[in-house]
Amino acid sequence: MPEIRCTPLGAGQDVGRSCILLSIGGKNIMLDCGMHMGYNDDRRFPDFDYINKEGTLSEHLDCVIISHFHLDHCGALPYMTEMKGYEGPVYMTHPTKAICPILLEDYRKISVERKGEKNFFTSQMIKDCMKKVIAVNLHQTVQVDSELEIKAYYAGHVLGAAMFHIKVGQESVVYTGDYNMTPDRHLGAASIDKCRPDLLITESTYATTIRDSKRCRERDFLKKVHTCIEKGGKVLIPVFALGRAQELCILLETYWDRMNLKVPIYFSLGLTEKANNYYKMFITWTNQKIRKTFVQRNMFDFKHIKPFDKSYTDNPGPMVVFATPGMLHAGLSLQIFRKWAPNPNNMVIMPGYCVAGTIGSMVLSGAKKVEFENKQYVEVKLAVEYMSFSAHADAKGIMQLIRQSEPSNVMLVHGENTKMNFLKQKIKQEFGIDCYKPANGETISITTSHNIPVDISLQLLKQEASQLTGPPDPKRLRLMHGALVMKDNVMRLVPADEAMKELGMVEHQVRFTSTVALGDEAAPTIATDKIFQLLKSNMKDYSIQLISDGSIAIESVIIKVSGDEGMEKSVLVSWPYQDEELGSHLLNLIQTLTTS
């Protein structure tokens, strides 16, 4: 039996470093190639040696698919292609291809130039890596080779994010990457066809969460920001450059307009400017409202939000600052946090998930002191707020996607083990299908069963229809006689004579014959006439003929009486295999004469 095998090299019962090895129909595919934000050592990247204990990565992998540009999904790609020697194709959408190198270069600068890390990819390696990328359009079926095909679907989440349907022969898998089933202020909701894959690999970041109303969350966010700045405090909002950042910028921009507020809002320079340009460039990936208003006014040309300079950190008075990155694990957001944390008038609002091991995660867990490099401690006195503006699907959204795609099996990744356990039970209970949650390095195998499609000839269907006395009953199975012919990998059921003609063969007919002893001593002609009259009265819908040689023909069945006058007679009944039902019925009918 064919089987699909799946091994997470990252994101197995964990959030971060998404990297899943998929084996389907003899093909090996890597789904995402991310890095872990919580580590600064070898654990940061997936263990590629797991794949190529012998030979190169290119020999073992048919392709790599990147779902979106977040570093926990694409951050290890240059390391894999340029330092581990993968030469094969890499697939991602056009926006992902455009934005990926910017985020990779920004992270390289932080890691190498500021932190002085070794064994890291260079700027040139990022450029060389992106040359291997093949950009795909949504709903475009891409033929990787003669057997493997992939198709991208809109995932919401961030600009360019896609779910991928991977198909080899009749086996198929859907990999969601990160997705959002509810539209937001700048992106639409994820959607997919009813593609009924053998396996759905879905993220489960918010496996146990059902988020409250978006409007309530937005109102709460604006109230907290307004209260803090009214008291003269500073608000830090750590974000990643694309996605949540644009969402919250649009929200604050419209609120500042409505309330006529003059407090400055800043956004970390450079990266976000480029990010907003990409939103303008790929406007078709945004939601309907932004596309509609784009001609009159570009929602990403902000009036109240200005570029941030590091010197502004010590400015007196209230301000709101969006700074990257989103988990306070490095960069400008961490530098600002360090300076503002000791002041109780200030506030940090974490708008999304923080990976374990990051400063963001520690602060959300209630840490009152945070250790930085060189054993320096900073007291955390500012207000800490967590508000989920995350662009991930919640439990309700995950169940909705399963309902939409109708998979045979589900595999949970990109989530915490305890939360996965809850969702696993819920999926089994509601859909009655198997659900898996392998840990990193653990392999699951799914046996797949397949239907073999067979074309039926029109002539055969017409023959079958001619035997019906009324409309066909769709619930009742019907037996069809024909020859199964396989040609050019296509199977057809055709009438036997058509198959003979195609194959240049002469038909040989097989007939079944049975003899009944008739205790009638009259002449054979009288016995034949007695059977003829019996058939005429019992088989009124059939054509019954008396043949010149003394036998009776009813359809393809032949009945012949033999034996001399004054002796017991033998009645021979003969029929072809096609009319076995009729032949058996006539045999039973003649046997009634022997008992009468």
Short summary of the structure?
The chain has 596 residues and is an alpha/beta fold.
Structural category is alpha/beta
Number of helices: 17
Question: Can you give the mean pLDDT?
Answer: 88
- Catalogue the unreliable spans: none
Q: For the terminal residues, how far apart are their CA atoms?
A: 57 Å
Instruction: Name the quaternary structure.
Output: single chain
For the secondary structure, the number of strands is: 30
Order of strands, widest sheet: 6-5-4-3-2-1-22
Q: How is the biggest beta sheet arranged?
A: 7 strands, mixed
Helix content class: 25-40%
Radius of gyration: 37 Å
- What is the global morphology? elongated
Task: Please name the defining characteristics of this protein.
single chain; 596 residues; alpha/beta; 7-stranded mixed sheet
Question: How would you sum up this structure, described in words?
Answer:
It is a single chain. With 596 residues, the chain is α/β, with parallel strands linked by helices. It is 31% helix and 24% strand. It contains 17 helices and 30 strands. The strands form six sheets. Strands 6-5-4-3-2-1-22 form a seven-stranded mixed sheet. The chain has a seven-stranded mixed sheet with strand order 7-8-9-10-11-20-21, covered by helices on one side.
